[in-house]
Structures are given as C-alpha cells and as structure tokens.
C-alpha cells in the first residue's frame, strides 16, 4: 500500500542520513588525529627553516632566498593543518569557545603580523574610532581574518589592493575584507563557503578549498554570519557580521590586562 511504501522510503532516507553522519564523524576524527600528529614536526621544521633563513641572510648567501621559500611553504602547510584541525574540532560537537574581550585593533594587527612576509603591499585599514572591544575566541577569530586575507592575495594577486573596513552598525559589528581583483565567479557567492569549494583559476591557485569553510564554521559558532559578493567598483568582498555584547568600559578592560 501507498502508506507502507512511503514509510519504507522514509526509513531508507533516515538510514542514509545516519550513515552519512557517521561517515562524516569518522572523517572528522581522522582529520583531527592526522592534523594533531602533523603539528609537532611542522613546528620543528618551521623553527629550523627560520634559523637557516636568518643565518644564510646574515652571511649574504645566495641560498637565503631558497631557505626563505622553504620557511614560507612550511608556514602555509601549518596553516592548512590548523584549518583541518579546527574544522574537525568544531564539527565534532562538544566544542567550547574560549571567548575573551579583545580590541579589534589587536586582533587585526596580530593577523597582519602573521601574514606580513607574504604581503607585497600594505593592507588598507578603516577601523572604528574609538577602540572597539569584541568578545571572541581570539586565535579562532584571527584565523578568520588570516584566511580571508590569504584568499584575497591568492585570487586577486599579490599586487592587488586589499583592505579591511569595519564599523559598528546598531548591535552588530560589520567587518569587510575586500580586494580590487577579478571578483567572484557568477553564482558562487554561497557555494564558495562549502568545504573543498574552489574559486576561479583553479589550476593556477594552490589549496584544497578549506579556508573559507573554516571561516564560516568559526563565524557560525560565534553567532554571526559571513557573506560574499562582488563590489560595484570591482573585486570581491567578504562581510562578517558579529552580534556585539555589552562591553566593559575601556578603563576596566586595561586594568584587567
């Protein structure tokens, strides 16, 4: 009968959904274990590459450039591993944010300091005055900024104009990371945040498509939203909107630091 067939179809669909969920959990557990095991050797490699780069540069060696490239590639791989680990942790359930009050300026400044070796020109900054306090998990929110800026450099090009604009609008903080590059491919404004999604020029741009997915996951657990669109004047813009909580007075904040 029709009702029995409908029940069987529903049961089969539920079983498929359950199996898909279990596969995702196993995949996340494997990614977390692999990423965790890779962190220590990568940290050692980065430290050795840093020492080698400084030593060769001080000696005026022609091999200093190659050592610097090794250091940069190790750093890029470390960021990829961190993205994998954070994605697995967030999606595994039971993930706890370690929120603290930070100034927006110090989070942005820390992200820019991490990226400085790969930037060929300064980032245009437009941040709200006076100092704005945000209640976030510092390292995770810094990861959002790093990933968005890396994405801009990757797709718009190292010589492109890139900027961060932020302002408080009502009860929300709105933060835009923009560039004047070729912009987003038509129709990819939403799918670009999916895991393993890639933008245009796939064959020419390295990466596995996790950077924007981890951005969305981190913004989601903060109760915010992230969207992407093409700017009227050209280029892409990624907009993060975070709900603002009542911040302590800046005097109290500095006393607690």
TrEMBL record:
Top-level division of the source organism's lineage: Bacteria
Single Gene Ontology MF annotation: phosphorelay sensor kinase activity
PROSITE patterns: HIS_KIN
Keywords: ATP-binding, Kinase, Nucleotide-binding, Phosphoprotein, Transferase, Two-component regulatory system
Entry annotated with the keyword Nucleotide-binding: yes
Major enzyme class: transferase
Pfam family name, one: HATPase_c
Enzyme Commission code(s) on record: 2.7.13.3
Catalytic activity of the protein: ATP + protein L-histidine = ADP + protein N-phospho-L-histidine
Histidine kinase domain boundaries: 33-246
Annotated GO CC locations: plasma membrane
Name of the featured protein: histidine kinase
Organism: Escherichia coli
């Amino acid at each position: 009968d029709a009702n029995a067939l409908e029940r069987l179809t529903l049961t089969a669909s539920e079983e498929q959904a359950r199996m898909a969920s279990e596969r995702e959990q196993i995949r996340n557990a494997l990614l977390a274990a692999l990423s965790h095991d890779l962190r220590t050797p990568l940290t050692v490699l980065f430290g050795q590459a840093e020492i080698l780069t400084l030593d060769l540069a001080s000696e005026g060696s022609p091999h200093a450039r190659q050592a610097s490239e090794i250091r940069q590639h190790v750093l890029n791989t470390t960021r990829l591993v961190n993205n994998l680990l954070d994605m697995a942790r967030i999606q595994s359930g039971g993930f706890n944010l370690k929120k603290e009050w930070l100034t927006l300026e110090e989070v942005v400044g820390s992200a820019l300091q991490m990226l400085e070796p790969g930037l060929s020109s300064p980032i245009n900054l437009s941040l709200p005055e006076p100092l704005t306090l945000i209640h976030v998990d510092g390292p995770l929110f810094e990861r959002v900024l790093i990933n968005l800026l890396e994405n801009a450099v990757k797709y718009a090009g190292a010589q492109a104009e890139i900027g961060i604009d932020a302002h408080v609008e009502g009860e929300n903080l709105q933060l835009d990371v923009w560039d004047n590059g070729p912009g987003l491919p038509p129709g990819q404004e939403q799918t670009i945040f999916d895991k393993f999604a890639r933008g245009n020029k796939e064959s020419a741009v390295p990466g596995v498509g996790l950077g924007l997915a981890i951005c969305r996951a981190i913004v989601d657990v903060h109760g915010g939203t992230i969207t992407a669109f093409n700017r009227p004047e050209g280029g892409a813009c990624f907009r993060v909107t975070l709900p603002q909580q009542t911040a302590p007075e800046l005097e109290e904040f500095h006393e607690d630091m």
